[in-house]
Amino acid sequence: MEFKDYYTIMGVERGASQDEIKRAYRKLARKYHPDVSKEEDAEQRFKEIGEAYEVLKDPEKRTAYDQLGANWKAGQDFRPPPDWNQGFEFRGGGFTGADAEHFSDFFESLFGKGFSRAGGRGGGFHARGEDTHAKVVVDLEDAYSSAVRTLTLKHTEVDASGRPQVKERTLNVRIPKGVRQGQHIRLAKQGGAGVGRGEAGDLYLEIEFRPHSLYRVEQKDVYLDLPLAPWEAALGATVTAPTPEGSVELKIPAGSQGGRKLRLKGRGIPGDPPGDFYVVLQIALPAADSEAAKAAYRSLQKAVPFNPRAHLGG
Amino acid sequence: MTMDKTSALVGEILEEQVELTLGELCRACQVPAERVVELVEEGIVDPSGPNPARWRFRGMSVQRVRCALRLEQDLGVNVAGAALALDLMEELERMRIRLRGLG
Lengths: 314, 103
Fold this sequence. Notes:
Largest interface: A-B, 42 and 38 residues
Low-confidence stretches of chain A: 91-99, 114-124
CATH topology of chain B: Multidrug-efflux Transporter Regulator, Chain: A, Domain 2
Number of strands of chain A: 11
Structural class of chain A: alpha+beta
Shape of chain B: globular
Strand order of the largest sheet of chain A: 6-7-11-10
Strand content of chain B: 5-15%
Number of helices of chain A: 8
Structural class of chain B: mainly alpha
Distance between the termini of chain B: 36 Å
Strand order of the largest sheet of chain B: 3-4
Mean pLDDT of chain B: 87
CATH architecture of the largest domain in chain A: Orthogonal Bundle
Oligomer: heterodimer
C-alpha cells in the first residue's frame, strides 16, 4: 500500500490552519469537480482531494495522521504501525457524506471502513427498488443500427454479514437508434431490487461513444477528414468515402481547397431531424522522391504563377 | 458482439422520449420532493403543468437535478449558486460548440 501525503495533495503546509485547509479544499474542489472540470483526470483528482480533506478537516483524524510523522513520502510502501492511533478517541459521525466508497486502501487502513455509508441513501422504508445510474461506452455505429450490446455492470451489495461486495451482472441492451453522446437510456425495472413485493427501480445508462479512428462527433453531426491528391482537388474527382452506414461515392468539385466541408445531408446520427455528415477535405502532397516527381513539380511551378502568400503582402 | 435480438432489453432515450412526474423525478434522483420543489422555484428545472401533482418534467431534468445536488454537496454552494453554475456551464458548452464550428 502506498503512503499518501494529504498535505501535498491539498497543496498546503503541514502547519496550515483549519481555515487555510478549507480554502484550499474549496478551490481545488471547484477546479476538479467532475461536473465542472474538463480536465482528463478530474474524477480521480477530485476523489483524492475529497479523501485528503476528509482527514485534514477533522482535527481528530488530522492529529492522528500527523502522528505518522513527516518522514513518509508519497508513494512509499506503507504499513500502519500496530498502535498508531492508540489513545485517540474517534467520535465517529464526523463523516459528512463524501463518496467514502471510493476512498483509498491507505485511508481504510487508517480509519477503517466504518465510515462507509450503511445501506442506501436517504434512509426510510421504500418498497420500490432504487433507481440506479451507470455509464456505458458504445460505438458510434451502434447509434446508426440500433445494435444489441452486452454490457457488464458492477454494483455493490451488502451481504448477510453487513460487508459490501462488488457484484457483476450482464445485460443485453438494444442501443436506441439516434442516441447521442451524453444522452441517457432509461431501462424500466432494471435498477435496484424492490423490497418485499415492491417493483425494481429503473436503470439509467449514460451513453458515451468510444473514440473513433475515422469520425468525430459533434452533437448529431459526424465529421470525417478526407485526404485528396492535389489533382483530385484541383480538377474534381469522384472518390469513395467511408460513412458509419457504409461507403459512398462522393463528387469532389473542381477547385476544392483544403479545409472545405462537403455536407451529406441527413447522414449524421439518425433522428427527426437527423444530423449531417461532413467530409472535411485535406490535400495530401505526393512526395518528391523521384526524378519524375521532381520534374512534375518543377513543370507545375513553371506553368502556374502561384503565390500562396499573396494575402500576407509578400 | 451482437446478441440474439429477441432477448435484448429495449430502453427509451431519456432526453427525447421520456417525461417524468414529480414522483418519478424524485426516484430517479433519489431526493425528497421538497428538494425538487426548491429547484423548481429557483428555475433549475422547469416543469409544465399547473401544480406539483400534474407537473411533467422533461427527461433532461434528471441530469440537471443530479448535477445541482452534487454541486451543492461537494462545493458547498446554495441552490442559487448551483443554478448560476449550471447556466454558466451550459453557456460554456454552447461556446465550445461554436468555437469548434469556426475551427
